[in-house]
Amino acid sequence: MKRSTRITIKDLARQLKISTSTVSRALRDHHEIKAETKKAVLELAKKLDYQPNEVSLSLLKKKTKMIGVVVPKMGYHFFSAALDGIEAVTQKAGFTVMVCQTNESYEREVQNIRNMAAGRVDGVLVSVSGETKDYEHFRQLQRKGIPLVFFDRECKSIEASRVLVDNYGASCKVVEHLAEMGCKKIAYLGGPQSMALSNTRLQGYKDTLEKLRLPIEGRWEVHCDVSRDGARIAAEKLIDQEDVPDAIFAMSDRLATTLMGLLKERGIKIPDEIAVVGFNNEPIAPIMTPSLTSVKQSEFEIGQLAAEILLNEIDSEDELEVPISRMIKTELIIRESSKKIKS
Questions:
Q1: ∠ CA 300-188-291, rounded to 5°
Q2: Which of 158, 219, 156 is nearest to 187 (CA)?
Q3: Sheet architecture: strand order including 123-126
Q4: Per CATH, the architecture of 167-296+331-338 is what?
């Protein structure tokens, strides 16, 4: 026999066309809710036989004081620095942090999320893996009532709070800088086409080329996984073609350093023949030869802000009506790899 579907606060809110938090407060006889609204909510609740889930309510009141953090790889400088920001906030609040890395694997990401949900963490911070194209595991987490906040890498189809850098604006600055250096054939070396972060940077690149009336060529746009082997194969596609670009904007410093290694092997001068710009301002950027121009992000601040938002959602008694979105500004650090002498 098919089990009947439990009526939830969301069902009541949908039928009454009011917010879930208003329904929740009306059911608790909150003083800020109008009498007629309380009456409508209570009458519908009685009509539909709404029963609060007492087991869930009791569990929600018992916090584990633990949050989960899922990142692509702790070896990436960005995530180790962001974790410092996360722990600076969580430790003050008395929370313990459980960190899992996916190694850019979708399967590992799914398993990590499931394990965290089973372990009853109070909330989860996530930076999506490079392979992830299906997001049902995040929806399952939300259906369990566990707060979810994305940072750095997001999933646009999931309604959740997020903390991102201004990827679009940063890309515009990169292209404008390369154009100022006299570059006219600017290419983009991006990550997986399913990665929202890479696509946002790509859009900034394209829009700025169009604004500056510089050519937008499909052959100068290549994508790869975020491994060094994948980056090398993609970089070869750019420099082995007949019409070679005179500048390459790489989605990350990891891709940029692989690219620069390949250019040196081929005897191609940086930046005289091909200028290179990366993204993330990794510690290796200033000590490379030539030093790498890159976009600087505030990793610590991103981690702090993401943790603050998550803890606020954990402490809130009401369901989040509108997810919070925060954008962190960037700075372009200009070094030798892009200082091309204008002809």
A1: 55
A2: 219
A3: 96-101, 66-71, 123-126, 148-151, 161-165, 325-328
A4: 3-Layer(aba) Sandwich (3.40)
pLDDT along the chain (343 residues), means of 10: 61 89 80 86 87 53 83 90 95 92 93 87 93 90 90 88 95 97 96 90 97 95 89 93 95 95 96 96 95 96 96 76 88 94 55
The reply to whether domains 9-52 and 65-164+299-328 share a CATH topology is no
Report the alpha-carbon distance of residue 158 to residue 236 in Å, rounded. 35
Residue for token pair 């600087």: 296
Query: Taking the domain 65-164+299-328, which CATH number applies?
Result: 3.40.50.2300
Under CATH, which number does the domain 9-52 receive?
Answer: 1.10.260.40
Domain segments of the chain as ranges = 9-52, 65-164+299-328, 167-296+331-338
